[in-house]
Structures are given as C-alpha cells and as structure tokens.
Amino acid sequence: CTHLSQLSTALDFNIQTATQLPAHRLSRPAPPVNFLSRTTFISKSTLPPAVCRSRESRFIINLRPDVKAASMASSSLPEAWGNALLDAARKFPKPDGFNPDYGTAGFRTEASLLTSTVFRCAVLMAARSRLTGRTCGIMITASHNPIQDNGVKLVDPAGEMLAISWEARATDLAQADSAEAVLAAVQRLYAEESISVTAPARVLIAHDNRPSCPGLLEAALAGANIGCGDGGNGQVACSLGEQTTPCLHWAVMEHGGEIPEDGLAAAYIEDLAAGFATMLEGAPPSAAAADEVLVDCANGVGSAALQRLTASLQARGGAAAALKLKLVNTGEGGLNNDCGADYVQKERTQPVNFQAALDATKGTPRCVSLDGDADRVVYFASDGGRLQLYDGDRIAVLAARLINILLADLGESGPQLKLGIVQTAYANGSSTKYIREELGCEVVLTATGVKWLHAAAHKFDIGVYFEANGHGTVLFSNDARDKLQAAKSGGDKAAATAAGKLLAMSHVLNQAVGDAVSGVLLVESALQLAGLDMASWADLYHDLPSRMLKVEVPDRTKVVPNTSETQVLQPPALQLLIDQSVANFTSGRSFVRPSGTEDVVRVYAEADTQEAADKLAAEVAQHVKDVLANL
After folding, report:
1. What is the pLDDT of residues 285-322, one digit of tens each?
2. Is CB count within 10 Å lower at the N or C end of the chain?
C-alpha cells in the first residue's frame, strides 16, 4: 500500500482499494515515458508469488478521467470492424457461469466449454501481433490432460509463452459475458496499449490430435482473421495442422510468417537432426548406442515427429543414424490414457502396452515417455517391478555435466561462459547438492511454474532448467553463441570442437520452450559422449526419499512464502515450527506453499529414509493446521 501511494503521488494516479475485484481486473501504471496515454492491466501472475498472495492485496489504478477519455478516443475501432467483431463473437458465445482464468501457459478445461475462449484468445493474439509487428502463435492442446479436455496456449513473437503482463488481458477477454463485452474489452485493449488499427499481423495456429480440435481450430481461425481484418489486410491466420507444441513455438521463433517450402514441421525436424549429428561427430563408439530406445508417445502428436526424426537421422548416416527409436502408443489407444510422461512420473508405473514391447526387444533398451503434446519427457528403467525414474532433475544434471565438460575443453583462452542451473523447491535436494558440490555450478531457485524458470535461465550465458515433470530446456544467450562461433573458427582444435558441439546443442535444444523430442536427443547425445549407461547415470546421485501432502485450509492466502517458496514469510510462527521439525531429521528439508487454484496448502518433505520423510511431512502438515486455525 505504501509503495502504491507513493507512486500515485508521483504520477498523479487515483488508487482505489478493491478487495472484491477479481484478479484479472488488477492494473499497474505504464512506464513514466508514456504514462499519460495509457494504463496496463496486470494479474497476480505478473509478480513473484510472494508479492501478492493476500486477497486484500488487490488494487486498480485508474488514469484521470480526462486522460483516459482522450486515450480511448485516439484509438477508436472502425465501425465496420466493430460490427464484424460483434457478429463473430455472437457465433462463439461463452457458456453461462463459465469464467476461465489464465493458468501457467493459457487456458485448459473440458473441451466443450472452450470455443468462446479460443475465439477470443485469437483476437487477442492478432492484437499482440499488431502491437509487436511480429508473428504470434496459438496452440490448441491440453497437453497431458485426458482426451475430453482441451486448452489453448498463447505464443509470443520470441516463441516463448505470452508476456506475463498480457495474461490478465487474456482473462479479461475470456470472461467477457457477451459479444458487446468482448467488443468493449477489445476497445480498451487497443486504446490502453496504443495499438494501430491498420497495422499488419500474422498468427500461426496448430493443434494436437484431440477430436475436439477441428471445432476449436475453426474458432481460432475466425478470431485471428476478424481480429486483424480492417478491410485491407486480408486473411492473417495460418493453420499448421497437427503439430507438437514445441514445433509451433519453434516456428514462431525461427520463421515467423515465412513458411519454408518443405513445411515447418520438416524444417523443425531437420534443425534438430542436424544439431544431433554434429554433436556426435567424432564421438567414440559407445555400447549404449547399440541399444534400442523404446518411446511411449502417449498416443499423441509426438509419434509423428519422432517418425520424421528417425527418417531424417537414417538419411544422414554416421553416428546419428545409430539411434534406434522404437515407438509405442502411437495413436492406437486413448490420448494420455495410462501412458505419457505425466502418468509415468506420478504413478511410477510403466505405460500400457510397454511390457509387450520390452519382451520383443533384444538387449537392454532405454525407456522414454513423452506427454500428449510432446513438451515433457522422462526416462525410466523397468524390471517388472517399481520403476527407476529419470525425471527432469536427472536430465538437468546430465545436461549440466556435459556442458561443464565442453566448457572446460574451451580452455583458458576460450570464451568464459557462465553456466547456471535453475530449479524450484521441488527439485530433489540430492540433485541440487550434486550440481553445487560435484559440478561447481550455480543453482538458482525460483517459484513453481515454468515461466519463472525460463525467465531465470535467460540470465546466464547458458541456462539449464527442467522441472521434475520433464518440462525444460537449455537456453543459450546470443552473446554466448557469438563467442562460441568465434571459438569454433579459432586455431585451437580442441576448443573449436567443443565450441562446435555447444553450438550444435543450441540447435538440438529448443530455445523457446521445453521440448520432448529435443530432450530425447539431449539425453542420447549426453550418454554417448560421456560413455554412460542408464545405471551409471542413476549412480551420479541418489534421490532423497520425499513425500508430498496437501492440507485443506479455510484461506490459503494466509500463507505467504518467499519468492523461491522455500520459506514462509507469513505467518512467521509457521516457519519457526517447520524449522524445529526439520532439525530433528537427518537430511531433512521441508517447505509449504499455497495452491494457486484451491484452498489447500501443499507440503513437501525430504529425509534420509521414506519413513522419516513421511513423518516429517505429517508433522509439518499438522503445523499448518494448528497455526492457521489460530489466526
């Protein structure tokens, strides 16, 4: 409140406390250079979670009426376009009582409810394209959710997720109760963001293989085309058909509105294959390379991408062609039904149809599982009993280990690049300890949510992040790539080779978003280059036993953690009790965080044995109940 009051005095804003306002109506002032012309909506997700947990911490900042009126008048929509938008919005009405909120990467729910949301998101992304002057994207998918669900992910011009400052814009449009309310929201958007109604735009749209996708694609095309059609720009939406989510992100990042003659999917696979082949050039023969890799495709769109990848690698020959991928669950069963990365990671059970594939495979295959839209990947080993899981933590360690080796090969005269690994509090403590103590790398902890990890990874020359669920990538800064390119052309052969492999890795790893196909190539190249098999990978470190619980509470917002969600700031008595409990357990660690969607507080605990982890989690859960009951 103090900061906002000081800001209002400096900028002549009127601030109203609004405890009953929904989160999507939050707003913040625009930068001082143009604060007199507009205001910008924000949501709670715009700020680190610790900044605004409380229901009382909701504010709306209004421009002086004369300023706002002048701004609105300067960006009024053409009447014909407004009428066309009204007509189109009426064809895709919002279901009564349905008020979707923007999640981590978009909207996701039961598919029959989503038509209006997808239409309006397309209108939004057309406006986003106009504002930035670059191509944006829309992916229709519910990722690892059941087949009856669907969703929409919004892609910014850099190929990354929608800018956080626009998430509330999406919610504002999605929750509009009528076509007239949609038009009013679009008018506000254009006025407050100073968007030109005559600027060109381009929106790429793709979808997964759910049966609900064709109808939602129709809504997306209608929204994008009406959103940018002022009578002079023509059709602006381009459907790419069935694609993986990472392929769409890559297409927006690399090609924008330009479609290669052989298609974006082919160009995407060729980029990955070329990088993988370069990484393996000159690699010593590896026993692991001779083993097959069984891939659970979750009956999703990843199977088609991997089929194209296999064909591309075979055509290239050499060490890359030795990668033998055998695909399981390629579409004959239900999407994500008892299969997929999320199922394997949570249930610790091998996917349906996998045992028959194992029985028919010679040798000791490596086992992999993707999720439905192929942006998550986990490895696992199965002996018919409980799985040995190689989750995102282990993939991050494997990537960091390989990068560390290649950076050392650059030599003291080579570029000195800073490598950082980004994790959340949910990362197993053993992985964090290995990275810090064995690899000597910096570890940064962020709030839960891939958007926070991705942003933090950008702060390093080379940033590695993977959530435990297998979603992640390795980001290379432009400056790092320039320095590696110079080292590749230098006279030191060892340094040039290492620089070439690191540059190739920047093509193998999707620079826009987590990518399961990229993840497979990363793991396979890292194992081969390091001469590791699955057992030696597992022996790099041993996970501490852990337990997760959730505690139902009257008001989750009473618990306010710090930005990394490792400590409780409010109420302070709760953190004192957690610390006391943790001190009684060998290798003990525990934290709590409020859910973002329901009135529960999530508890995580680690200790040296499973029994101890269970006991610590139960103690901390009781502390949560006791402390909140007394507030």
Report:
1. 665 566 899 999 999 999 999 999 999 999 999 899 99
2. N
Tracing tokens 């590695």 back to the chain, one arrives at: 464
C-alpha to C-alpha distance for 399 and 59, rounded to whole angstroms? 43
366 strand-pairing partners: 293
Task: Compute the distance between CA of residue 237 and CA of residue 453 in angstroms, rounded to an integer.
Answer: 30
> How many other C-beta atoms lie within 10 A of the C-beta of residue 36?
15
Residue with tokens 């660690």: 589
pLDDT of the residue at 65: 36
Question: How far is residue 31's CA from residue 53's CA, in Å, rounded to a whole number?
Answer: 24
List the one residue out of 357, 380, 272, 364 whose CA is nearest residue 320: 272
* Average pLDDT of span 466-492: 95
Give the Cα separation of 478 and 484 in Å (integer). 10
Please answer whether residues 380 and 344 qualify as being in contact, where contact means their C-beta atoms are separated by less than 8 angstroms: yes
Helix (H) or strand (E) holding 449, with range, is none
User: Catalytic one among 143, 286, 303, 525?
Assistant: 143
Q: Is 143 a catalytic residue?
A: yes
**227: Cβ–Cβ under 8 A, 6 or more apart, which residues?**
85, 122, 123, 124, 125, 126, 127, 186, 201, 203, 236
Angle (nearest 5°) at CA 17 between 12 and 20: 145
The structure's pTM equals 0.86
Residue by residue, DSSP assigns 68-96 as HHHHHHHTPPPHHHHHHHHHHHHHSPPPT
Whole-angstrom Cα distance, residue 155 to residue 138?
6
Q: How many residues does the chain have?
A: 631
Gap between the Cα atoms of 76 and 82, Å rounded: 10
pLDDT tens string 213-225 = 999 999 999 999 9
Task: Please say if the pLDDT value at position 106 is more than 60.
Answer: yes
Half-sphere exposure in the Cβ direction for 227 (13 Å, CA): 33
